[in-house]
Amino acid sequence: MSSPETRGALARMLNPVRLDDPARTSLARGGVLSTVGLLAQGILRFATAFLVGHIAGRSELGIVASAIATATILALLWPTTTGSAASKFLARARGTGDSEQIRATAAHLRLRTIETAVVLALVSMPVWVLIDRGSWPGAVSVAALTLAYSGYSFTRGVQFGAGQVPRAIAWDITSVVLGLAGLVVLLVTGVRGPALVLPLVLAYGLYTLAGWPYAAKGRPDRARRRELDGFVALGAVGSLASTGFLQLSQISAKLAEGDAAAGQYAAALNLATPASMLAASLSLVLLPSMAEAWGRADHAAFHAQTDRATRALAVIMVAIFGSIIVCSRLLVDVIWGAPFAAARNILPVLVVAVLATNLGVACVNALTARSQRGMVVATGSSLLGMAIGATMWLFVAPRMGIEGVALGYLCGTVVIAAIPVGIVWRKDGHEWGLLFGKVALGLAVVGGTALTQRLTELPVLLDPALALAFLALWWLLNRGDIARLPVPGFLRRR
Fold first, then answer.
1. Contacts for 214 with CB less than 8 Å, ≥ 6 apart
2. How many CB atoms sit inside 10 A of residue 396's CB?
3. Contact (CB, 8 A) for 167 and 95
4. Which of 171, 152, 237, 225 is nearest to 36 (CA)?
5. Most exposed: 39, 219, 279, 342, by fewest CB within 10 Å?
6. CA Rg, the chain, in Å?
């Protein structure tokens, strides 16, 4: 027999989302819960790639990964950023205690999500036909994924902005289980091509229905609507030039080298990105918390959250991604096998690129939470970085293939991350010189180790020992920061 606590949790999960009745939780606990939810969604993406690659082959993986990338990029053009807007502005409205403003804000963002998601789903069909060189049935699957992912992104932001983090995580896990079950059924029954994204449609669609803000009503005044739409417009451009940049690299691999090479690229990308879920989950809880602190003029808490988050990300992410780079040969061999051997060469490059993105998360949130001007700065850096990366794709990828695509992505992401970090560092007077000096030293050690592995052809089985040696060195360099930033308490409010 279930306990009263279990029945209560189940009731909260099944009932419509409450916009003005947050489930009180600390920033640290919220970060842990958010990590669990994003980890579940990351498992869905990774398991999709893993099962498709091993059962259907490299070319099918290239097609499916490119279909997912297409839907994701189109959703970034507006709907995805409505989730960020909901996370920020619903939390800010909660900070003022204005229930009417909370419901009106959610209603406005809901309307914009519906309008844009439908249009973008229709646009996705001819776009996919061009990318895949003619496949209208597959285009319908891509359109469905565009619609479902748009709804998922919005409703996730609503639940985080409304303080319903435990509820959001429960639905993350539920939708992932159903999505994976659907994928297995499709693969076993011989389904191939873009239709293999339909389990993702199921997972995201279920999440959307569960988190939809049915209780939202009213209409914000003109100034608030302008502020909301301006935030989303700027955020959409920035997201397209940052998150969309990653997805564009997958499509570039397909266009440059074909489906099989795109499958190799997707294999490396799916090994490089899961560890970034920690930073993404931190962002989901950090942005509302920063917005709330800024809204009540608590600049000391705002400054402390930025500093602690940046230090924690530097210590944790360099350890994780550095170990992945050192063990990249072993990881590709064990997880993907000989058919995906080409992924060995591009995985380290993609890992450094994803690391750069993660190191800038707290600073991007600090700029975004302050004002629209901060959004402009973050968006500008993203556009500049994407332009640099795309230029390299045009001139380098034709000669280097998917290695050139990965290198272009790396150069672009370094620019995208470096500008917000530099501005926040200088503007807020953070003492990060030693911190980023140690990051550079750690990356130099990892790079030297990886180069030695390849030049001397060290046995692959030695990779874990080398990774442990790096972790020991990294701990010695950062034991002071680690002692000051215990997990999960490193983000406790002062």
1. 16, 17
2. 16
3. no
4. 171
5. 219
6. 22
